[in-house]
């Protein structure tokens, strides 16, 4: 069924950081592609007028892409409106309703902290602005299972599930879409994609920078909440899921939820937590904070396909490189016919998610010479990312069109919290690691996939 497109975009938190860094550049790109022609109403507390919002948008866009095409910007600027007001005051929503005008079906984008969801949703309902509307909400979606349930209840008081779009920007990435496509559009993978042939799966998200002035936010969150419970778990679902039975958003999400249900709840033994040396001196961080800036986590998926295959995820700040990558390592051949193949030289499939998008297959071939000895090679395909849509472009556009495929459904958001619940808010001191290393050396020496972690190298 084709959904009706939302006819207005309302951006709560229009003067904030996310709007500046990500949302305005995405709106600009959508205008440039001819994919956004509807009014965009920014709303925030600041007592601004529309020209100030336009100036802020221009600054954010220039910073993100280096230049501005005046014709495109003029079109975007012409779509912008601004409403200022307190989200706790009903008159703000009445004012907004007047600016939207009668008979419209907006998409409300809540780029505001979760504590603001409730007043905003209620304000919208009381002004009569929620009818026929959609709502898009930013991560983090709660801090734990209880708060996620509460947020879901707040949203459901006013919006139906099919009108709610919970963002995980990772799902909007080209590379993540490719991962799903590659798995189910090629038949050669399926026969080996199971516990008989896969030894382990590892997902690494390495960032070579610290908390970049976000100390206060980060210190309330930590690595597991920030990127593992959402971005990286979502990648794991795409690797572990069964083929969807159809093309609808629910067909895909149903399969992901099946995997989520089968993931064992973590225990403390499944996790190594680290904190980079110097974190405690970051502005906004508590002096004795035990928050992790690095985590390595072992998951198991109790299905026929994956029973006992370890899925490892590691992520952290101040690691040696900036890169996100998946490696599916196969079991070595049952017998060595020629040279002795070390288990760590077994075949693998590698998906690089960032900075570039590529797929590689690790294989062995005979090294030139008299002897039947081999060498490791990679069959490598890199994507030309010219013209790719950025995650926020794709997600805003999908939500305007009512396409929920790349968003997190209520059940998925809650099960993901169930899985990580026992390892959140660990008050024991994390292992300290030096910036530029792969996390706490000693603790990591004995924690990882059989036959070790692979790369990623530059
Ligand atoms: C965000 C996290 O969700 O994702 C950040 O809050 C992290 O800490 C970022 O740096 C990474 O996103 P990307 O798209 O740059 O890989």
Key traits:
458 residues, six-stranded parallel beta sheet, nine-stranded mixed beta sheet, binds 6-O-phosphono-beta-D-glucopyranose
Topology of helices and strands:
Elements: E1 8-12, H1 17-32, E2 40-44, H2 50-65, H3 70-79, E3 80-84, H4 90-100, E4 106-110, H5 117-127, E5 134-137, H6 145-156, E6 164-166, H7 174-185, E7 198-206, H8 215-219, H9 222-240, H10 249-262, E8 271-276, E9 294-299, E10 311-316, E11 323-330, E12 348-354, E13 358-366, E14 374-382, H11 391-400, H12 410-420, E15 431-433, H13 441-445
6-O-phosphono-beta-D-glucopyranose (BG6) is lined by residues 139, 207, 226-227, 354.
Describe this structure in words.
It contains 13 helices and 15 strands. Helix 5 links the parallel strand 4 and strand 5. Helix 1 crosses helix 3, helix 9 crosses helix 10 and helix 9 packs across helix 12. Helix content is 33%, strand content 20%. The longest helix is centred in the middle third of the chain and has 19 residues. The mean pLDDT is 95. 6-O-phosphono-beta-D-glucopyranose binds next to helix 9.
- What's the β-strand tally? 15
- Globally, the shape reads globular
Task: Please give the count of helices.
Answer: 13
* Uncertain runs: none
Order of adjacent strands in the largest pleated sheet: 14-13-12-11-7-10-9-8-15
Distance between the terminal alpha carbons, to the nearest Å? 45 Å
Q: What level of helicity do the residues show?
A: 25-40%
**Beta-sheet strand percentage?**
15-25%
Bound molecules: 6-O-phosphono-beta-D-glucopyranose
Q: What Rg do the Cα atoms give?
A: 23 Å
Largest sheet: 9 strands, mixed
| Helix-strand string | EHEHHEHEHEHEHEHHHEEEEEEEHHEH
Structural class: alpha/beta
Averaged pLDDT: 95
